[in-house]
């Protein structure tokens, strides 16, 4: 029962992490314009994401523009896109594989060994998915930080971390942790020992000596 609870907890965490990775990928707030230092505070906030750039006016109106051409994008942005999309696809595969191996599901009940292996395999896929998202978000965040502290970067073009990065970090951590719980939910095999041999009891002495 304990392994079943750990398995369910791991699946819920990994699934929530996968949903968070999808949300982070779709959000345009991967980096936002910085108004620190000598920057003049303007009436709009600028955001850039993996797929579009947006400007939010002080009135709350948001205007977004999708990037025109894939070939005009930086190679690092294309690689970040590829990693996040691969993470989402792997997470989707991990959901189906892990559900098949869940103890609460009826499928594959006739072979418990294969069922447990499916759950562990689903956990491994979730871990790989979370690692891909973690690498993508950390790489993107490192580029933003390096450009921010670069003295040659104009002050009015500096960006800070957006909310999508924080969601991506939290989601990837959830996916990795949930996948680890799924891998640990497989019960260990009990060591089998050969049955102990019984020894005949010594006949109780009657206290009589025979000649």
UniProtKB/TrEMBL annotation:
Membrane protein topology class:
Multi-pass membrane protein
PROSITE patterns attached here? Answer: CLAUDIN
* GO MF annotation: an example: structural molecule activity
Where does this polypeptide localize? Answer: Cell junction, Tight junction; Cell membrane
Q: Which domain of life is it from?
A: Eukaryota
Q: Name one GO cellular component term.
A: plasma membrane
Q: Which InterPro entries match?
A: Claudin, Claudin1, Claudin_CS, PMP22/EMP/MP20/Claudin
Q: Which UniProt keywords apply?
A: Cell junction, Cell membrane, Membrane, Tight junction, Transmembrane, Transmembrane helix
Q: Which residues cross the membrane?
A: 7-27, 79-99, 119-141, 161-184
**PANTHER family the UniProt entry points to:** CLAUDIN
Q: What does this protein do?
A: Claudins function as major constituents of the tight junction complexes that regulate the permeability of epithelia.
What family does this belong to?
A: Belongs to the claudin family.
Protein name as it appears in the record: Claudin
Organism for this UniProt entry: Rhadina sibilatrix
Taxonomic lineage from the root: Eukaryota, Metazoa, Chordata, Craniata, Vertebrata
